[in-house]
Task: inverse folding
């Protein structure tokens, strides 16, 4: 109920292009966020993989990690998990467009699940980006790994294990971070902890993307703290996703954009 009210409030308060005065944010919204028709020939392959996973009636075993991910995993099938936990086509395509526009050298994802959002990001990055995706559940990590291999995503890798351990392992593997997609363990304390850990390696122009910023009161609180952080210069709130820009600007700007 709360989320419905929050969403209605977002619809009322959010702006389209006309309300954006920053030239950088205006161009980004116009040329990337709203460019919904942009396609890759690989979309069909990824959606075929998603459809196949959705038909998988085998039970998903393994460790249940964090809030908003594998609740009741013991009774869930892979198909149900693919249906409920992977980013939808709309948001997957947005990740692809952002990845293609941003072209990071080093990119990270927390929460691979079956690799759906990872595949969209990786095809947007191209082969010159080193992409690491972290997943705690071994069944999911193996499936994500297989999906990356099938798509010949040779500069992408999955690290299996709890983020509490694997995040520092991943950070040791890269000289800097230009992109992070936070999509797992949707609770306030770990979200802020992972954010601060990633900040230590963030490059000047890094883009951090947070999923489910309105999923719970805890996530809303985390998002508020992230927006207020001194290293954060611009944010774009799309309700289900929050974009965080670390590049220095004269003044801090937070945009609430209808998507
Ligand atoms: C919402 S799903 C990710 C969906 C995926 N990004 C996509 O759109 O295709 C979140 C994933 O994070 C993993 N996860 C959550 N907390 C974790 C933790 N502390 N350590 C490792 N993995 C975790 C869960 O196992 C789950 O697969």
Result:
């Amino acid at each position: 109920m709360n989320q419905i009210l929050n969403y209605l409030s977002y619809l009322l308060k959010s702006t389209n292009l006309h309300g954006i005065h920053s030239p950088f944010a205006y161009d980004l919204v116009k040329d990337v966020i709203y460019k919904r028709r942009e396609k890759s020939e690989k979309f069909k392959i990824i959606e075929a993989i998603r459809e196949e996973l959705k038909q998988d009636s085998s039970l998903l075993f393994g460790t249940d990690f964090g809030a908003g991910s594998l609740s009741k995993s013991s009774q869930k099938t892979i198909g149900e998990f693919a249906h409920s936990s992977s980013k939808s086509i709309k948001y997957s395509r947005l990740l692809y467009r952002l990845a293609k526009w941003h072209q990071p050298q080093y990119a990270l994802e927390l929460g691979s699940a079956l690799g759906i959002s990872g595949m969209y990001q990786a095809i947007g990055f191209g082969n010159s980006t080193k992409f690491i995706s972290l997943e705690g559940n071994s069944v999911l990590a193996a499936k994500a790994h297989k999906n990356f291999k099938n798509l010949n995503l040779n500069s992408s890798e999955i690290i299996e294990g709890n983020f509490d351990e694997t995040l520092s392992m991943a950070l040791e593997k890269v000289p800097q971070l230009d992109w992070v997609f936070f999509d797992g363990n949707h609770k306030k304390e770990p979200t802020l902890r992972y954010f601060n850990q990633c900040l230590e390696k963030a490059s000047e122009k890094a883009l951090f993307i947070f999923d489910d910023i309105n999923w719970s009161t805890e996530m809303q609180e985390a998002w508020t703290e992230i927006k207020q952080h001194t290293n954060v210069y611009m944010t774009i709130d799309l309700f289900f996703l929050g974009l965080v820009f670390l590049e220095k600007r004269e003044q801090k700007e937070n945009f609430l954009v209808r998507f």
Remarks:
- Residues 110 and 236 are 20 Å apart (CA to CA).
- The beta strands are 106-110, 130-135, 156-160, 177-182, 202-211, 234-237, 241-245, 253-256.
- The chain has ten helices and eight strands.
